[in-house]
Q: What sequence folds into this?
C-alpha cells in the first residue's frame, strides 16, 4: 500500500555485537522485537502525517532511550565510578545543522538535549557539566541516579570489575555487544535526518568519548546523499569517520548506499580492527543495514509498507 | 638543494581570521614571523634527521602551544569562568591511530596528552576531569592557572564580557580571529601526520567543544592521501567534517590536494556560513594553504628548501 507519491522511511538500531540465537531466550527476543516494532510504528505514523525526519529520529531515539533493554537513557551502563555518562547526537540533512552532547549524567533523554544544543546554543557540541548547565537553563529536568539504575546493568558493572575489564555492554563473558541506539529517516518532504544515543561502556573511565556524539563518526545526514547512524567499537568508528565516509563515497565516489556502506563497514573499518554496524537511508528512501558482527538489533519501515525487525545476521 | 631522494615537508598554522596588514604593527608582525620560522626550522631539522611525521607535528604544535602569541597552551584565551579549557588532537596517517583531548585545564602541552591518549589509553578521545586524571596517572605535571595567564588574553575576556560576546580570540572589535595552532608533515619514510591544538573561544560557556579535538573535523591524516589541520569557526568545520572531507575527495573523487581543499573550504564550508582555513600536505609532499578569511598565520618548508612564512592573503 503506497500512501504517498514521495518516498519516506524510518530505520532504527539498538546496538550490534555478538548477539547469538542460542544465547537468547524466546521471551527476551520477544521483548526486543516488540519494542523495536513499537518504535517503528510511532515514527512511521509521524512520517505519514507529514512530520519531519528530524522529529521522527528524535522520537525514535527517545523511545529507545526510555526502554531499559537498550544501553541509552534508562538502561545505560555504569561507569567505573558507579554512575552514568551518556552521549548523543542529531543531524538535520537539509540544513546540515547538528547537535551533540557528551558525558551527560542526569538528563532523561540525551538526544533531546542534543537537539536543543543544535537549535538554541549557537554551538554543535557541549560536554560534561557545562552541557548540563545549558540543559537546566533550557528547562530540562534533573533526573536523579535512581532513574538510570537497572539491576541488569549494575550486575554487568560488578562482573566487569571482577574481571577488571572495560567492556562494551556485554551480557556475559562470551558476548560482546555495542550498546547504542540510533535512527535514520527520510520524510515526505525529501529531508533526511539521523540521531544516535548511548550510555557508553561498562566500567568506563577517564571521561572517554566514543563515536556517538561525534558528527561524521557516529551520526551524519545530508539530503544530497544519505543519513547514517552507527553502533560499534567507537574508537574505530572515529578513526574511520564511518558515517561521513559513507556519505562521501556516495557524493564523491558515485557509490550507491549499499556499495558505500559495505565498503566502509567491511573494508575500511575491519582493516583497522573495528567491529559494529550502521543503519542508513538514502534520498530515495532505500534503507540498508550493514554490520560485521553476528547480530544487530534493527527494524525499519518504508513507505508505510510492512515493518521489518531483525536481530541476527 | 635536495637533501633526500624522498619528499618530505612540514606546514604549520597559528590561526586564521580578519588579520589585516593595516592593523598590525611592524614589531608584532616580526614576532609572529620569527616564531613561525623557528617552529618550522625545528620540525624540518627533525625530518631531515629521519624523524617521523608524528614526532614532527607533535614538536611543532608543542612549540606553538608554548608561544604566548597563539591561542593554545600558554596564551590560551579565557572561558567565561575566567579559566582555560584547551582541546587538542593528533593523528598518524600510517596506522590511522588518533588521540584527542577536550576541556583540559592544567596540562602544559595538550597535544602531548592527545598523543599519550593515542598510545596508552586504549581510547581515542578523553575529555574533562577524566582526561586530566589519565594525564596525571601518565606522569604529566599539573600546571597552575598562573602558567596559562597572559594580560593580553585577560583583557580580551574583560572586553568580551563588557560586550557580552562569545568571541573567537578577537583582538579588537573589528577583528575576528580563530585561534588555533596546527601542523601537518610528511616524513622521508612516506608517513603523514597531523595535529591541532586550541584554547578555544574567549568567554566560552557550557563546555563547548569545537572542531580541534574531533578527528575528521579539525584533524585528519591518511598516508593514501593527505594530512590536514584546520582553524576556523569550529561548529561549521564539524558540520562539514572539513579535514576528512578533503581526504575523501582525494580518495574517492580523484581530486588533487588543491582541488579538494579549495572545494571544501570555498564551497562546502562557505555554503553553510563557515570561515577559516586549512593547511595540508599530500603523500608527494605537496603543501597547500587554503582559507576564506583575510589572513592565516602560516609557514612551511619542503624538502629542506627555503622556508615560507605568510600572514595575509
A:
Amino acid at each position: 500500500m503506497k500512501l504517498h507519491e514521495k518516498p519516506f522511511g524510518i530505520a532504527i538500531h539498538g546496538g550490534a555485537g555478538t548477539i547469538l540465537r542460542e544465547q537468547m531466550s524466546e521471551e527476551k527476543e520477544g521483548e526486543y522485537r516488540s519494542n523495536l516494532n513499537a518504535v517503528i510504528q510511532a515514527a512511521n505514523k509521524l512520517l505519514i502525517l507529514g512530520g519531519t525526519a528530524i522529529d521522527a529520529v528524535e522520537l525514535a531515539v527517545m523511545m529507545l532511550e526510555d526502554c531499559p533493554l537498550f544501553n541509552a537513557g534508562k538502561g545505560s551502563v555504569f561507569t567505573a565510578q558507579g554512575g552514568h555518562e551518556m552521549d548523543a547526537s542529531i543531524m538535520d540533512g537539509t540544513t546540515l545543522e547538528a547537535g551533540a552532547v557528551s558525558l551527560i549524567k542526569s538528563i532523561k533523554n540525551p538526544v533531546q538535549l542534543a537537539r536543543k544544543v543544535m537549535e538554541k546554543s549557537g554551538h554543535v557540541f557541549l560536554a560534561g557539566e557545562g552541557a548540563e548547565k545549558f540543559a537546566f537553563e533550557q528547562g530540562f529536568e534533573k533526573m536523579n541516579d535512581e532513574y538510570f539504575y537497572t539491576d541488569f546493568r549494575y550486575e554487568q558493572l560488578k562482573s566487569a570489575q571482577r574481571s577488571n575489564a572495560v567492556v562494551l555492554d556485554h551480557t556475559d563473558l562470551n558476548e560482546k555487544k555495542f550498546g547504542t541506539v540510533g535512527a535514520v529517516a527520510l520524510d515526505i518532504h525529501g529531508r533526511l535526518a539521523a540521531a544516535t544515543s548511548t550510555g557508553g561502556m561498562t566500567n568506563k573511565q577517564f571521561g572517554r568519548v566514543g563515536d556517538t556524539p561525534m558528527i561524521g563518526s557516529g551520526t551524519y545526514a545530508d539530503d544530497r546523499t544519505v543519513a547514517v547512524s552507527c553502533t560499534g567499537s567507537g574508537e574505530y568508528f572515529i578513526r574511520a569517520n564511518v558515517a561521513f565516509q559513507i556519505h562521501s563515497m556516495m557524493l564523491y565516489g558515485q557509490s550507491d548506499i549499499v556499495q558505500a556502506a559495505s565498503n566502509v563497514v567491511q573494508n575500511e573499518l575491519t582493516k583497522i580492527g573495528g567491529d559494529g554496524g550502521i543503519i542508513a537511508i538514502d534520498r530515495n528512501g532505500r534503507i540498508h543495514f550493514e554490520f560485521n558482527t553476528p547480530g544487530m538489533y534493527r527494524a525499519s519501515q518504508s513507505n508505510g509498507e510492512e515493518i521489518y525487525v531483525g536481530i541476527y545476521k
In short: Residues 26-48 of chain A form the longest helix (23 residues). Chain A has nine helices and 14 strands. Chain A touches chain B through 46 residues (CB under 8 Å).
